[in-house]
Amino acid sequence: MSVRIVGTGLIGTSIGLALSHKGFRVLLSDPSPTAQALAADLGAGQIDDDVAADAIFVAAPPDVAASVVAEQLKQWPSAVVADVASVKQQVADAVRALVPPEQLHRYVGSHPMAGRERSGAVAAQADLFEGRTWVVCPQQETDRHAVQLVQELAHATGAAIETMPADEHDAAVAVVSHIPQLAASVVAAQLRDLPDAAIALSGGGIRDVTRIAESDPMMWTQILAGNAAAVSPVLDRVVEQLGAVAGSLRRLAADSSAAEGSRGEVARLISDGQLGHARIPGKHGAAPATYATVIVPIPDEPGSFARLFNDVGDAGINLEDLRMEHGVGAMVGLVELSVLPGVVDRLRDVLEDKGWSVHE
Ligand SMILES: NC(=O)C1=CN([C@@H]2O[C@H](COP(=O)(O)OP(=O)(O)OC[C@H]3O[C@@H](n4cnc5c(N)ncnc54)[C@H](O)[C@@H]3O)[C@@H](O)[C@H]2O)C=CC1
Ligand SMILES: O=C(O)C(=O)Cc1ccc(O)cc1
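Above: inputs. Below: predicted complex with NAI.
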Protein backbone atom coordinates (compact mmCIF):
# COMPACT_ATOMS: atom_id res chain seq x y z
CA MET A 1 0.00 0.00 0.00
CA SER A 2 1.26 3.50 -0.77
CA VAL A 3 0.65 6.69 1.18
CA ARG A 4 1.25 10.29 0.13
CA ILE A 5 2.10 12.93 2.73
CA VAL A 6 1.29 16.48 1.70
CA GLY A 7 2.97 18.91 4.10
CA THR A 8 6.21 17.46 5.46
CA GLY A 9 6.56 19.39 8.71
CA LEU A 10 6.54 17.92 12.23
CA ILE A 11 3.40 15.83 11.84
CA GLY A 12 3.71 14.90 8.14
CA THR A 13 7.32 13.78 8.52
CA SER A 14 6.52 11.86 11.73
CA ILE A 15 3.72 9.99 9.90
CA GLY A 16 6.10 9.33 7.00
CA LEU A 17 8.79 7.96 9.33
CA ALA A 18 6.32 5.75 11.25
CA LEU A 19 4.75 4.31 8.08
CA SER A 20 8.08 3.87 6.24
CA HIS A 21 9.40 1.91 9.23
CA LYS A 22 6.32 -0.31 8.95
CA GLY A 23 7.11 -1.05 5.29
CA PHE A 24 4.58 1.23 3.57
CA ARG A 25 5.65 3.03 0.42
CA VAL A 26 5.58 6.73 1.37
CA LEU A 27 5.57 9.61 -1.14
CA LEU A 28 6.33 13.12 0.05
CA SER A 29 5.31 16.55 -1.22
CA ASP A 30 5.53 20.03 0.27
CA PRO A 31 5.53 23.47 -1.38
CA SER A 32 8.79 24.14 0.49
CA PRO A 33 11.59 22.28 -1.33
CA THR A 34 13.67 22.42 1.86
CA ALA A 35 10.96 20.84 4.03
CA GLN A 36 10.44 18.13 1.42
CA ALA A 37 14.16 17.37 1.04
CA LEU A 38 14.68 17.29 4.79
CA ALA A 39 11.82 14.82 5.30
CA ALA A 40 13.28 12.56 2.59
CA ASP A 41 16.80 12.83 4.06
CA LEU A 42 15.43 11.82 7.47
CA GLY A 43 13.98 8.65 5.92
CA ALA A 44 10.28 9.61 5.86
CA GLY A 45 9.80 8.55 2.22
CA GLN A 46 10.63 9.60 -1.32
CA ILE A 47 9.89 12.96 -2.95
CA ASP A 48 7.27 12.47 -5.62
CA ASP A 49 4.50 14.63 -7.09
CA ASP A 50 3.31 12.32 -9.86
CA VAL A 51 2.57 8.80 -8.62
CA ALA A 52 -0.93 7.91 -7.37
CA ALA A 53 -1.20 6.65 -3.77
CA ASP A 54 -3.97 4.69 -2.05
CA ALA A 55 -4.23 7.19 0.79
CA ILE A 56 -3.13 10.79 1.30
CA PHE A 57 -2.48 12.56 4.61
CA VAL A 58 -2.71 16.33 4.37
CA ALA A 59 -0.48 17.64 7.17
CA ALA A 60 -0.49 21.32 6.19
CA PRO A 61 -1.28 24.24 8.55
CA PRO A 62 -4.96 24.40 9.65
CA ASP A 63 -5.88 27.48 7.59
CA VAL A 64 -4.97 25.79 4.30
CA ALA A 65 -5.90 22.19 5.24
CA ALA A 66 -9.36 22.28 3.58
CA SER A 67 -8.15 23.76 0.29
CA VAL A 68 -5.26 21.26 0.12
CA VAL A 69 -7.71 18.40 0.81
CA ALA A 70 -9.95 19.70 -2.01
CA GLU A 71 -6.97 19.88 -4.43
CA GLN A 72 -5.87 16.35 -3.56
CA LEU A 73 -9.40 14.89 -3.93
CA LYS A 74 -9.55 16.48 -7.39
CA GLN A 75 -6.03 15.51 -8.48
CA TRP A 76 -6.24 11.86 -7.31
CA PRO A 77 -9.73 10.54 -8.17
CA SER A 78 -9.40 7.19 -6.42
CA ALA A 79 -7.39 8.09 -3.31
CA VAL A 80 -8.75 8.41 0.21
CA VAL A 81 -7.75 11.85 1.53
CA ALA A 82 -7.39 12.52 5.27
CA ASP A 83 -6.30 15.67 7.06
CA VAL A 84 -4.65 15.83 10.50
CA ALA A 85 -5.53 19.39 11.49
CA SER A 86 -6.08 20.14 15.18
CA VAL A 87 -9.61 21.46 14.54
CA LYS A 88 -12.19 19.34 12.76
CA GLN A 89 -15.59 21.02 12.23
CA GLN A 90 -14.28 24.13 10.48
CA VAL A 91 -12.08 22.06 8.14
CA ALA A 92 -14.96 19.65 7.37
CA ASP A 93 -17.36 22.56 6.64
CA ALA A 94 -14.79 24.19 4.36
CA VAL A 95 -14.12 20.90 2.51
CA ARG A 96 -17.87 20.44 1.98
CA ALA A 97 -18.10 23.97 0.53
CA LEU A 98 -15.13 23.40 -1.84
CA VAL A 99 -15.64 19.83 -3.07
CA PRO A 100 -18.27 18.40 -5.45
CA PRO A 101 -20.66 16.10 -3.46
CA GLU A 102 -19.55 12.99 -5.39
CA GLN A 103 -15.98 13.37 -4.02
CA LEU A 104 -16.92 13.83 -0.36
CA HIS A 105 -17.12 10.10 0.45
CA ARG A 106 -13.29 9.89 0.08
CA TYR A 107 -12.55 12.61 2.68
CA VAL A 108 -11.79 11.59 6.28
CA GLY A 109 -11.10 14.15 9.02
CA SER A 110 -8.60 13.01 11.63
CA HIS A 111 -6.40 14.37 14.42
CA PRO A 112 -3.45 12.66 16.09
CA MET A 113 -3.42 13.78 19.72
CA ALA A 114 0.33 13.88 19.78
CA GLY A 115 2.68 16.65 18.94
CA ARG A 116 5.53 18.72 20.11
CA GLU A 117 6.13 22.34 20.93
CA ARG A 118 8.60 22.47 18.00
CA SER A 119 7.64 22.60 14.30
CA GLY A 120 9.20 21.31 11.10
CA ALA A 121 10.66 18.03 9.87
CA VAL A 122 13.74 18.33 12.13
CA ALA A 123 11.54 17.81 15.19
CA ALA A 124 9.81 14.72 13.68
CA GLN A 125 9.92 11.37 15.47
CA ALA A 126 8.96 7.91 14.16
CA ASP A 127 7.42 7.06 17.55
CA LEU A 128 5.52 10.34 18.03
CA PHE A 129 2.13 8.59 17.86
CA GLU A 130 3.10 5.46 19.83
CA GLY A 131 0.52 4.92 22.59
CA ARG A 132 -1.25 8.23 21.82
CA THR A 133 -4.84 8.71 20.70
CA TRP A 134 -5.62 9.42 17.03
CA VAL A 135 -9.15 10.75 16.58
CA VAL A 136 -11.04 9.91 13.37
CA CYS A 137 -14.08 12.09 12.61
CA PRO A 138 -16.18 10.65 9.76
CA GLN A 139 -18.80 12.89 8.12
CA GLN A 140 -22.26 11.71 7.07
CA GLU A 141 -21.01 11.25 3.50
CA THR A 142 -17.76 9.42 4.38
CA ASP A 143 -17.39 5.94 2.93
CA ARG A 144 -16.97 3.17 5.53
CA HIS A 145 -13.94 1.74 3.68
CA ALA A 146 -12.27 5.17 3.62
CA VAL A 147 -12.72 5.44 7.39
CA GLN A 148 -11.32 1.93 7.86
CA LEU A 149 -8.27 2.68 5.72
CA VAL A 150 -7.41 5.81 7.73
CA GLN A 151 -7.99 3.93 10.99
CA GLU A 152 -5.63 1.16 9.82
CA LEU A 153 -2.90 3.60 8.83
CA ALA A 154 -3.24 5.57 12.07
CA HIS A 155 -3.10 2.27 13.97
CA ALA A 156 0.07 1.30 12.06
CA THR A 157 1.83 4.37 13.53
CA GLY A 158 1.24 2.87 17.00
CA ALA A 159 -1.71 5.13 17.87
CA ALA A 160 -4.94 4.09 19.58
CA ILE A 161 -7.98 5.03 17.51
CA GLU A 162 -11.03 6.97 18.80
CA THR A 163 -13.88 7.68 16.42
CA MET A 164 -16.23 10.59 17.18
CA PRO A 165 -18.18 13.39 15.45
CA ALA A 166 -16.21 16.54 14.58
CA ASP A 167 -18.16 18.82 16.94
CA GLU A 168 -17.63 16.45 19.86
CA HIS A 169 -13.89 16.35 19.07
CA ASP A 170 -13.70 20.15 18.95
CA ALA A 171 -15.47 20.54 22.32
CA ALA A 172 -13.09 18.00 23.88
CA VAL A 173 -9.84 19.47 22.51
CA ALA A 174 -10.98 22.95 23.56
CA VAL A 175 -10.56 21.73 27.16
CA VAL A 176 -7.71 19.21 26.91
CA SER A 177 -5.47 20.96 24.37
CA HIS A 178 -6.46 24.51 23.46
CA ILE A 179 -7.11 25.96 26.95
CA PRO A 180 -3.84 24.36 28.22
CA GLN A 181 -1.96 26.18 25.43
CA LEU A 182 -3.50 29.51 26.49
CA ALA A 183 -2.83 28.76 30.16
CA ALA A 184 0.83 27.92 29.43
CA SER A 185 1.24 31.06 27.31
CA VAL A 186 -0.40 33.43 29.80
CA VAL A 187 1.70 32.08 32.71
CA ALA A 188 4.91 32.22 30.65
CA ALA A 189 4.07 35.76 29.50
CA GLN A 190 4.30 36.89 33.16
CA LEU A 191 8.00 35.95 33.10
CA ARG A 192 8.93 38.31 30.28
CA ASP A 193 9.80 41.33 32.40
CA LEU A 194 10.73 39.53 35.62
CA PRO A 195 14.15 40.45 37.06
CA ASP A 196 16.87 37.81 36.55
CA ALA A 197 17.06 37.15 40.31
CA ALA A 198 13.39 36.15 40.32
CA ILE A 199 13.72 34.02 37.16
CA ALA A 200 16.59 32.17 38.85
CA LEU A 201 14.08 30.75 41.36
CA SER A 202 12.29 28.81 38.56
CA GLY A 203 11.71 25.19 39.53
CA GLY A 204 9.61 22.24 38.44
CA GLY A 205 6.25 24.00 38.75
CA ILE A 206 6.90 26.77 36.25
CA ARG A 207 8.65 24.35 33.86
CA ASP A 208 5.74 21.88 33.95
CA VAL A 209 3.09 24.53 33.45
CA THR A 210 4.89 26.39 30.62
CA ARG A 211 6.41 23.57 28.50
CA ILE A 212 4.03 24.15 25.59
CA ALA A 213 4.46 27.95 25.76
CA GLU A 214 7.29 27.38 23.23
CA SER A 215 4.70 26.49 20.54
CA ASP A 216 4.48 28.32 17.21
CA PRO A 217 2.31 31.50 17.46
CA MET A 218 1.18 31.29 13.81
CA MET A 219 -0.01 27.69 14.14
CA TRP A 220 -1.80 28.34 17.43
CA THR A 221 -3.52 31.48 16.18
CA GLN A 222 -4.96 29.34 13.39
CA ILE A 223 -5.97 26.56 15.80
CA LEU A 224 -7.63 28.91 18.30
CA ALA A 225 -9.39 30.91 15.58
CA GLY A 226 -10.53 27.65 13.96
CA ASN A 227 -12.04 26.41 17.23
CA ALA A 228 -13.14 29.79 18.62
CA ALA A 229 -16.77 28.70 19.14
CA ALA A 230 -15.76 25.79 21.40
CA VAL A 231 -12.84 27.50 23.17
CA SER A 232 -14.47 30.82 24.07
CA PRO A 233 -17.15 29.49 26.52
CA VAL A 234 -14.51 27.40 28.34
CA LEU A 235 -12.22 30.41 28.50
CA ASP A 236 -15.12 32.47 29.93
CA ARG A 237 -15.43 29.90 32.75
CA VAL A 238 -11.67 30.04 33.38
CA VAL A 239 -11.78 33.86 33.54
CA GLU A 240 -14.80 33.70 35.88
CA GLN A 241 -13.05 31.26 38.26
CA LEU A 242 -9.81 33.23 38.23
CA GLY A 243 -11.80 36.44 38.71
CA ALA A 244 -13.43 34.99 41.84
CA VAL A 245 -10.03 33.98 43.26
CA ALA A 246 -8.56 37.39 42.38
CA GLY A 247 -11.46 39.03 44.26
CA SER A 248 -10.85 36.80 47.28
CA LEU A 249 -7.14 37.56 47.32
CA ARG A 250 -7.84 41.30 46.99
CA ARG A 251 -10.14 41.13 50.03
CA LEU A 252 -7.52 39.13 51.97
CA ALA A 253 -4.81 41.64 51.05
CA ALA A 254 -7.00 44.55 52.21
CA ASP A 255 -8.00 42.99 55.54
CA SER A 256 -7.20 39.34 56.12
CA SER A 257 -9.37 39.12 59.26
CA ALA A 258 -12.51 40.50 57.61
CA ALA A 259 -12.39 38.57 54.32
CA GLU A 260 -14.95 35.92 55.25
CA GLY A 261 -15.31 33.09 52.73
CA SER A 262 -12.23 34.15 50.77
CA ARG A 263 -10.01 31.31 51.89
CA GLY A 264 -12.84 28.89 51.04
CA GLU A 265 -13.01 30.31 47.51
CA VAL A 266 -9.26 29.77 47.01
CA ALA A 267 -9.32 26.27 48.54
CA ARG A 268 -12.29 25.31 46.32
CA LEU A 269 -10.38 26.11 43.12
CA ILE A 270 -7.29 24.18 44.22
CA SER A 271 -9.45 21.24 45.32
CA ASP A 272 -11.48 21.23 42.07
CA GLY A 273 -8.12 21.17 40.29
CA GLN A 274 -7.05 18.08 42.25
CA LEU A 275 -10.28 16.31 41.28
CA GLY A 276 -9.87 17.21 37.61
CA HIS A 277 -6.18 16.26 37.55
CA ALA A 278 -6.96 12.83 39.04
CA ARG A 279 -9.08 12.10 35.95
CA ILE A 280 -6.19 12.40 33.44
CA PRO A 281 -5.58 8.89 32.08
CA GLY A 282 -2.33 7.09 32.84
CA LYS A 283 0.06 5.50 30.35
CA HIS A 284 -1.50 4.04 27.16
CA GLY A 285 -4.92 5.40 28.20
CA ALA A 286 -5.09 3.13 31.26
CA ALA A 287 -6.84 4.24 34.43
CA PRO A 288 -4.91 7.00 36.22
CA ALA A 289 -2.05 5.30 38.00
CA THR A 290 -0.33 6.46 41.12
CA TYR A 291 3.35 5.72 40.79
CA ALA A 292 5.91 5.87 43.54
CA THR A 293 8.79 8.20 42.79
CA VAL A 294 12.37 8.58 43.89
CA ILE A 295 14.76 11.38 43.01
CA VAL A 296 18.36 10.54 42.13
CA PRO A 297 20.96 13.28 41.60
CA ILE A 298 23.28 12.35 38.71
CA PRO A 299 26.53 14.05 37.67
CA ASP A 300 26.22 16.26 34.57
CA GLU A 301 28.71 14.20 32.53
CA PRO A 302 28.64 11.68 29.66
CA GLY A 303 27.35 8.22 30.59
CA SER A 304 25.54 9.15 33.84
CA PHE A 305 22.08 8.39 32.50
CA ALA A 306 23.25 5.12 30.96
CA ARG A 307 24.77 3.95 34.27
CA LEU A 308 21.59 4.80 36.19
CA PHE A 309 19.30 3.09 33.66
CA ASN A 310 21.53 0.00 33.52
CA ASP A 311 21.38 -0.30 37.30
CA VAL A 312 17.56 -0.02 37.24
CA GLY A 313 17.34 -2.49 34.34
CA ASP A 314 19.73 -4.99 35.95
CA ALA A 315 17.38 -5.10 38.94
CA GLY A 316 14.52 -6.08 36.56
CA ILE A 317 12.53 -2.97 37.51
CA ASN A 318 10.37 -1.27 34.86
CA LEU A 319 10.46 2.52 34.73
CA GLU A 320 6.89 3.80 34.31
CA ASP A 321 7.84 7.44 33.84
CA LEU A 322 10.82 9.74 34.00
CA ARG A 323 11.44 13.44 34.57
CA MET A 324 14.58 15.46 34.86
CA GLU A 325 15.41 18.83 36.34
CA HIS A 326 18.72 20.62 36.20
CA GLY A 327 20.29 21.40 39.55
CA VAL A 328 20.80 25.08 40.31
CA GLY A 329 24.34 26.09 41.15
CA ALA A 330 25.77 22.56 40.80
CA MET A 331 26.66 20.37 37.82
CA VAL A 332 24.02 17.76 38.62
CA GLY A 333 20.73 16.64 37.16
CA LEU A 334 17.86 15.58 39.39
CA VAL A 335 16.23 12.51 37.82
CA GLU A 336 12.77 11.58 39.09
CA LEU A 337 12.09 7.88 38.50
CA SER A 338 8.47 6.65 38.67
CA VAL A 339 7.83 2.95 39.34
CA LEU A 340 4.94 0.83 40.58
CA PRO A 341 4.54 1.33 44.34
CA GLY A 342 5.27 -2.37 45.02
CA VAL A 343 8.86 -2.13 43.76
CA VAL A 344 9.95 1.26 45.08
CA ASP A 345 11.64 -0.09 48.23
CA ARG A 346 13.67 -2.55 46.16
CA LEU A 347 14.59 0.22 43.69
CA ARG A 348 15.85 2.39 46.55
CA ASP A 349 17.92 -0.51 47.99
CA VAL A 350 19.39 -1.49 44.63
CA LEU A 351 20.40 2.07 43.76
CA GLU A 352 21.91 2.75 47.18
CA ASP A 353 23.89 -0.50 46.91
CA LYS A 354 25.26 0.73 43.59
CA GLY A 355 26.38 3.99 45.20
CA TRP A 356 23.62 6.39 44.10
CA SER A 357 22.09 8.73 46.65
CA VAL A 358 18.33 8.37 46.60
CA HIS A 359 15.80 10.95 47.80
CA GLU A 360 12.02 10.75 48.32
N1 LIG B 1 2.21 20.59 16.06
C1 LIG B 1 1.48 19.72 16.72
O1 LIG B 1 1.82 19.40 17.85
C2 LIG B 1 0.30 19.10 16.05
C3 LIG B 1 -0.19 19.59 14.84
N2 LIG B 1 -1.28 19.02 14.24
C4 LIG B 1 -1.77 19.52 12.96
O2 LIG B 1 -0.89 19.06 11.97
C5 LIG B 1 -0.82 19.99 10.89
C6 LIG B 1 0.64 20.28 10.61
O3 LIG B 1 1.24 20.82 11.77
P1 LIG B 1 2.83 20.73 12.02
O4 LIG B 1 3.37 19.53 11.37
O5 LIG B 1 3.03 20.96 13.47
O6 LIG B 1 3.32 22.04 11.25
P2 LIG B 1 4.74 22.36 10.58
O7 LIG B 1 4.82 23.84 10.54
O8 LIG B 1 5.81 21.60 11.26
O9 LIG B 1 4.56 21.79 9.11
C7 LIG B 1 3.62 22.26 8.19
C8 LIG B 1 4.13 21.94 6.79
O10 LIG B 1 3.08 22.25 5.86
C9 LIG B 1 3.68 22.85 4.72
N3 LIG B 1 2.68 23.65 4.01
C10 LIG B 1 2.41 24.96 4.15
N4 LIG B 1 1.46 25.30 3.27
C11 LIG B 1 1.13 24.20 2.57
C12 LIG B 1 0.24 23.93 1.50
N5 LIG B 1 -0.55 24.86 1.02
N6 LIG B 1 0.19 22.66 1.02
C13 LIG B 1 0.97 21.68 1.52
N7 LIG B 1 1.84 21.89 2.52
C14 LIG B 1 1.92 23.13 3.05
C15 LIG B 1 4.85 23.66 5.28
O11 LIG B 1 5.82 23.92 4.26
C16 LIG B 1 5.35 22.75 6.39
O12 LIG B 1 6.38 21.89 5.91
C17 LIG B 1 -1.62 21.21 11.34
O13 LIG B 1 -2.87 21.20 10.69
C18 LIG B 1 -1.78 21.03 12.83
O14 LIG B 1 -3.01 21.57 13.29
C19 LIG B 1 -1.89 17.90 14.76
C20 LIG B 1 -1.43 17.36 15.94
C21 LIG B 1 -0.32 17.94 16.68
O1 LIG C 1 2.81 18.80 23.57
C1 LIG C 1 1.78 18.23 23.93
O2 LIG C 1 1.66 17.67 25.01
C2 LIG C 1 0.62 18.18 23.02
O3 LIG C 1 -0.38 17.66 23.41
C3 LIG C 1 0.82 18.79 21.65
C4 LIG C 1 -0.33 18.87 20.72
C5 LIG C 1 -0.49 20.06 20.03
C6 LIG C 1 -1.49 20.21 19.11
C7 LIG C 1 -2.34 19.16 18.86
O4 LIG C 1 -3.31 19.33 17.94
C8 LIG C 1 -2.20 17.96 19.50
C9 LIG C 1 -1.18 17.81 20.45
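The domain at 2-164 is CATH 3.40.50.720 (Rossmann fold).
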